[in-house]
Amino acid sequence: MQNKETVVIIGAGPVGIAAAAQLIERGLKPIVLEKGQTVGTAMLEWGHVRVFTPWKFLVDTAVEKLLLKTSWSYPDKEHMPTGREIVEQYLMPAATQTALASTIIYGTEVIAVAKTHLSKSSTAGRDDAAYTVHFKTNDGHYNSIEAAAVIDASGTWHSPNPIGLDGLPVPGERENKAFIQYGIPDVRNKQKDDYAGKRTLVLGGGHSAINVVLDLLKLQQDSADTQIHWGLRSINIEKLLGGGINDQLPARGELGQAAKRAIDSGALSLLTPLKVHSITRAPSGLSVQISVDDDVASDIESIEVDRIIVCAGFRPDLDILRELRLDIDEIVEAPTALAPLIDPNLHSCCSVKPHGVEELTHHDKNFFIVGMKAYGRAPTFLMLTGYEQVRSIAAELAGDHEAARRVELVLPQTGVCSTKGKSPASSACCEPASPEPASCCGTSTTTASTEPPLKATSSCCDPTHSAVPAPKKTTSCCG
Ligand SMILES: Cc1cc2nc3c(=O)[nH]c(=O)nc-3n(C[C@H](O)[C@H](O)[C@H](O)COP(=O)(O)OP(=O)(O)OC[C@H]3O[C@@H](n4cnc5c(N)ncnc54)[C@H](O)[C@@H]3O)c2cc1C
Fold first, then answer.
1. Ligand 1 centroid vs 367 CA: distance in angstroms?
2. What are phi and psi of 402, to 5 degrees?
3. Which of 196-200, 236-240, 249-253 has the lowest mean pLDDT?
4. Residues with CB under 6 A from ligand 1
């Protein structure tokens, strides 16, 4: 297939859909390739989880305009939906009842992107060459499509971090993958049979892990044999439960408090600071070799569990982009200009300067990584930030360079930072973040509804930040 005017978008998540709507608004021709059978395929995998951002921060303006031409009505703007509700009440109507419907091709997994007839090492004529996007269809066929520009909005949900502290799988992790799940499985409903009455080790110190642990505790109320081990890399449990999580967000603060009550009640065993060394099969389940302090290998002990749930964050799959000339930061794996704004070694802030085409440009012209994937390994992405990214890119591709560089996003008050032993009130942006791969990406709804939003130009650690009233409501995390 050949079409040099086409803009191919990889992934029909909220940001891919927003990109398509923004391009349509600009008179361009998007084609969205989605590997799943529906919009929001990744989101549906955590569909049982309630987000901490209300509807008013989840709907893209261009998608909204398309939807308002149908019988769709905006959900309660202050309500915080689940992932499934976002798909059913927003993405699905957009993908079936608007002009977006004819742009999405399902069951189409992009396996590589290249410059047409030019390998990575070929320079002559590169800027003028089109892109060829190679894909595999559900029925196992391989094909390709040519495009003038490519927007990669494929997220990171399908490339979770493994167990090893060095970023690699521990021995036995691959071999026992049938008993190991990554992300936030629905242990109370869809996967109840796998977890009820079983021994589960949950690994991770972010809100994904807390969500999983609390769900397992609810399961334990119905099925008393359910045993829960919770392994955290960091010994700073107070920060997790009393500082970083005990924020001003009622729902999120309650998450931390509920986890604290559970630990105090002895309903679960807490293993911290935990290192997993290896995993082997035991006669009845898995034997996990661990050490539970900062000591050396001589202190290795074993625990037996039936299943492991890993909530250690995500990373971008850059393999499909191997033939392109990217401009990627080697630490965060985000575009180089964006990386310093979101590097978790430097910030645990959620208030990232709104950004667009300037920060997202690569060496290969008219190729962009957007959405969750644009944040690489950083866990602080907000949908609203992604909508601003694709608004700017669509303007650039349409030749409206001024609009592309204009910041239109008004960020909601977002969570701030690591407290590092200070009281939450004294916590500030720009502190080094926790090494735990906690995700911090919600917004303070109470704040947003009662206080003015941050100025669009304000940014955590930006010198201009001091001119803006510091957000009083802090950390909100969702990973
Ligand atoms: C539990 C949880 C809670 C969150 N809560 C909030 C919140 O409160 N507020 C907020 O603003 N953000 C939140 N986020 C962060 C973020 O906004 C979401 O993860 C959001 O779904 C990211 O959107 P996306 O479009 O970038 O990627 P995704 O939603 O991950 O969509 C990517 C799409 O690309 C498809 N795809 C992947 N690879 C390919 C391929 N090779 N070819 C074709 N298709 C492909 C996938 O199937 C998927 O449909 C949360 C995230 C999680 C995990």
1. 19
2. -70, -50
3. 249-253
4. 10-16, 33-36, 41-43, 46, 49, 51-53, 109-110, 153-155, 157-158, 184, 320, 371-372, 381-384, 386, 441-442, 478
